[in-house]
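Recap for those who missed Tuesday's class. We walked through two folding examples back to back. For each one, the amino acid string is listed first and its predicted structure tokens come directly after. Nothing is annotated here on purpose, so try labeling regions yourself before you check the end of the notes.
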Amino acid sequence: MISPQNLPDTERRMNGHVKSMSFQKFMESATTLLSLLLIMAVDSTKTVAASRNQQCGNALLQTLKLTRLVRKESTDLIKTYKVYQGEMSDLFCEGSVSNIPDPSISGLDPSEKIVSIYTNLQMFIPHFKRVYEQQTDLQSPTSPLLTELTNVSLRSRNLALLIKAFYQSLFPNLPVPEPAGGPTTLPPPQNVFQQKVYGCVVLKTYKKFLLDVSKVLNNIKGKVCRRRIQMNALFF
């Protein structure tokens, strides 16, 4: 058997050249494969990011639609409420009641504003229940007012759930704070006149709150989801 040392110089050089070419082809193939894998990884990341941006927009759009619907129904509810309160119904809504939730939305950044919306919704719901209980004593069981009160209360609960889900989708690492200070403070026992004033003030205040909710959500719509798209574009 001829050892490599005993091969002619020309044949040794050819063997070395063949080995060099084989290694070069191997490196070229490896580089091409790595490039393809990187492209696939980036495309996959972009797809996931685009999907999240779409989810952000869809969740917010769904929340906005329900907010507008509840706002319309609360406007109709106030009209129905006045019809079923008898004389001086317009004056009832001009009264003043303590311990009604503040309709203004607090916070500087989107996370704080969304939490404020959620907290206020949770605080309004017990007031709706109290208004409904009071009106059951003043209206017939088949009164349209009771039906509309029930509908607005249920939709408000659903809106609170949507707001909470939207917050968790945007800020998965942040807990959703619950209303501080324990249960919502409700008014003490009231006479009929006070009940009528209380009910109308609650509904009017809630309507104003929903208007502010729509404004805040529209503002967030132009910032939060768009910011995600811009951030993804910077990285990819």
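Example two. Treat it independently of the first, because the proteins are unrelated.
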Amino acid sequence: MLLILLGVLVMHLIILILLIVSTAASTWSVGGDRTTDLWYTCTNSNGGYHCKPAISEDWLQAVQALMILSLLFCFFSLIAFLFQLFKLVKGGRFFFTAIFQILASVFVMCAAIIYTVMSPDEGSVKFGYAYVLAWVSFPLTLISGLIYIVLRKKE
């Protein structure tokens, strides 16, 4: 049982790191000498790296908000898991943790879908690794939430 709990905790920490990197990294889309993330658009010109704030369209602000919400809910579910690990009665399930983790997965899925649909469709622009990390963290977060539903505390 200890190995299962340790495995779930490690998986949760990996998901949290993926969400942090995905939200903060500067490569949601890459094209030529330009990279775009949720916060800045950076160009590499004349040997320098110049960044300016990203466009302030509603869809990008929605993606920013959803990614931050997914980070917060994933972090709060980690805190809830640790709390429930010591305070939950024997045989109890980690429902509170599961709800927060599943909500985090829904938020990251919605953010990635909005970015996919609304990002400018330019021929030379491709999705970057931060975008891929967001999509990778979605099923992992959902699976983690489902594991928390099934998981029971034993002594």
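Answers for example two:
The chain has a mean pLDDT of 88.
The longest helix spans residues 58-87.
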